[in-house]
Amino acid sequence: MATGRALTLSFSALVCFSFSLLLLLSSFQLLAQPSISQKLSADAASLLAFKASIADPLNRLSSWSAPSSSSALNSSSWFGVSFSVSLSVISITLRSCNLSGSIPPVLGNLSSLQRLDLADNNFTGAIPAEIYGLPSLVSLNLSYNWLSGTILPTFQRIDRLQELDLNTNCLTGTIPGDIANITELRKLDLGGNSFEGALPAQLGTLTNLNYFVAAGNSLTGEIPPSLGNLTKLQWLYLGWNQLTGTIPSSLGRLQSLTLLDFSHNFLSGSIPAELGSLSSLTELRLYNNILTGPIPRELGNLERLKDLDMAVNKLSGEIPLEIGNLIDLELLHLNLNNLSGTFPQWLANMSNLYSLYLFSNFLTGEMPSSMGLNNPRLQLMDVSSNNISGFIPPNLCARSSLEVLIAFSNQLSGPLPASLFDCPSLVRLRLENNLLNGSLPKISASRFSLTYLRISHNSFTGSIPLEIGNITSLQAVIISDNQFEGYLPEELLRLQRLQVFVAAQNKFIGGFPLQVCAGKPKLYLMDIGSNGFEGEITPAISSCTGLINLVLNDNHFSGGIPDELGSLPSLGYLDLSHNELNGPVPASLSSSASLVSINISFNRLLGPIPAGGVFKNLTQSQYEGNPGLCGDIPGLQSCSDDLFSDKISSSHGRDVIHRAPMISYLLPIFCFILALMLLLSALFTFDKCRRHRHTMERQATYGNPSSWKITMFQTSTFPTSEEIWLALKEENVIGQGGSGKVYKGQTFSGEPFVVKKLYARYLDDMESGSLRRSESCTDHGYNAELETLGRIRHRNIVRLLCSCATREHDLLVYEYMANGSLADVLHDKSRPGLLCWGARYRIAMEAAQALCYLHHDCIPQILHRDIKSTNILLDEHFTVRLSDFGVARSSNHVTSSETMSVIAGSCGYIAPEYAYTLKASDKCDVYSFGVVLLELISGKMPVETGLDGQNESLVAWMNKKMIQTAEDMIYVADVNLGQLQQDAKEEAFWVLKVALKCTSPSSYCRPSMKEVVEMLRPKTANRSFSVSSTSFKDRNDDASSKSEYFRSFAQRSYTVQW
């Protein structure tokens, strides 16, 4: 009984205790509730302030709204936001939401925020200092935006940060050494910005770092040896900078490293043997540097290596046998070095190899006959420009994976393997400049995907297989300088995709192909010169409406020249020399607007040479050997000689003119003289009144010249106000644009000058009833011209002599350029051939130096923003003067928030990234300059209308032309240049490569103007840069976004030699 009572008392006590405890907890919750609500309210207010300060065109933040209670916030309804148990904001993830504007400082109020991810948006402006003060922040990702400014060296409060990703922005300045204070940092990505200066040695203290990227900047100096202390590092990517010095041997301690990329720098010295200790390495990229010495044998220890790219250096010696131990190797690029020795036989056993580039070395010996049998993945093989001999391995396409085989300029001999012409995967085949012989094997056209065939300069014999006309994918066939014979297959020239056909210097016979261009007219180059063709040139040639070059010389063509040739809309170069053509020269050729070069020498032509057009500048070598021709050209008999004799003979026997009385002659003469004197007097009086009226009108417009405010910018003599005033006449107008008119004037001493009169806008002054200049109206570039040209001096920049402020207009006075603009000289059909290649090269160099001065020597940097051929003026000696700074800006005045109603720049010259962001940079000027280089090379306009009526840019056109050697320049060089000498071809080819580099779709792949000047200097004319790696991406790559390069650097595209 007592026991039961005790149990009852214990139970009651327990119930009382539990109830008390419940009351206590409830009281505590009630006491804590205001602070939690307060916290909720503060974080919600910060988020709503963030939303209000940015643009959200996709309405991704529509779920962010002011909460009516705590439950509204304690849910997943807030897009991209995560909350803690205590309802604090701990994570914001708004990746790829197309948000724009500046990142507001209010985010600094989220003291519990651990993760902030705003990647892949359009944020601009500087990174707020408040972001660096978030004490709980663990991950900060602001990559792929347009952020500018510098990184603030205030990392004391974010020492818990483990991930900092600022890749692909517009950040400048140096990388602060204080970043080493973030000791917990695992990932540091600063790539794709504009950082300068050296890498701080303090980075070597970040011992937890496993990912470090600083590629695509402008970093200088040496690679700090202290990076060898980062033993946990897995990625080290410092490519595309301006780093110098040697590769530190201390990097051999990075046992966890999987990627090491120092490509496209200025590193020198030898490759450290210690790199062979990087047992985890899968990718080693050192291409485009100045590395010397042999390839270390120790690299053969990198058993996991898949990519080895050391192209475009100065490496020497043999390719080590130990490289054959790398059984996982997929990519081996050693091209453009000084490697010697025999062709590595072990390559035949590399079962994972898919890309092999060994071109432009000094390799000898033969390729292994088993090459291809044990290479099931081999797709790209380029061994051109070596001294490789022997036969082409017969099994290269045994696994039907080979797509590109390039082996030109070697000592290869023997016949072509039949397997190559039965290879369904093969797309491009280049074997020119070898010792190959025999006939072409039978072609399996139904399986063939070949687009480009070039086997010129060999000793092939026999006829062309008929089946070649069934390869519908063919775009280019170049089989010149062989010993082919027989008839050309008619089907070949009917192929719809064929663009280039060159079969010169062979033994072909038969008539002119009757079915030429029977398919769609895409053929633009046809060269069948130096063969045995005969008969008449068929009028069917008129179907080749895209034809640019037609070469039929040194054959036996007879009959007349077809009138239809003059109707070809694109024909620029026509060679009919050394044939048996007769009859007259068609007048239609003289009316061709596109034809700029013609050769009709050594035929049997008769009659007059048409006047005008291409015949105006005909030289003797272009018409000699035709004794029946006549015309008003030096060296030819005049066509009027016989006519003149006929006139003399027809005058005999005429009646003597009847003599009238003398008075009948004198009276009309007297009346005529009197009337003439009266007319002259009236004209003089009228002109005097007109000039007085114009003077009064000019005074009303400009005011009295003596009242003008003139600002002088040159110490040399400049025009007086009266001389400028006299120039402002309509008859002196030499140009007119969107900002005003341009007049040519002359000082009283005979010195010419130019006046640019800028348009003015007016506001109606209601109080005074008069017109006054608007203070807020557009100044049409007046201030920009004054700010820029008024403070700079360079021999290749136009001189601003003075400025004048008149009553209604602003006037700018410049030196006069006798030869107009580069566009005038290049594209004026009445002045073809005015610029030889030497002059064009000098113009390119001088224009580059002028732009380099603006970008690199002016403080602050000056962006021109409208580089084009019409703004490159030429004086009497064809010296360059860069002009038109109406839209130029100092770099510190071009803010990311700048709003423009009109895009600065001209169609065809605008960089891809600027067209959709309206944010100018020096790389935009570099792109425009690259287009000018393409104009100098091709003579084409920046944008032209194709046969299909669609506009095509010069950049796109050039990228499609597959130019990879100096000999290929014939396909793109301006026909006005004529036949270039070999040195000129190589120089033009080099300038083309520089132009393509400048017009890269990714701004980060473009060089600076300082680099452009160095590349264009004659001393570098024989230097090569990468045509195999990321510096020259695949020509079919149409990436245009600013982030494309860094989005895909893990899956690089490689360009083969076309």
UniProtKB/TrEMBL annotation:
Keyword set, alphabetical order: ATP-binding, Cell membrane, Glycoprotein, Kinase, Leucine-rich repeat, Membrane, Nucleotide-binding, Phosphoprotein, Repeat, Serine/threonine-protein kinase, Signal, Transferase, Transmembrane, Transmembrane helix
Membrane topology qualifier: Single-pass membrane protein
Top-level EC class as recorded in UniProt: transferase
A GO cellular component entry from the record: plasma membrane
Short name of one Pfam family: LRR_1
Keyword tRNA processing: no
Compartments reported by the entry: Cell membrane
Signal sequence interval, chain numbering: 1-32
Family: Belongs to the protein kinase superfamily. Ser/Thr protein kinase family.
TM segment ranges: 665-686
Sequence positions that bind ATP: 757
Species for this entry: Ceratopteris richardii (Triangle waterfern)
Official protein name in the record: non-specific serine/threonine protein kinase
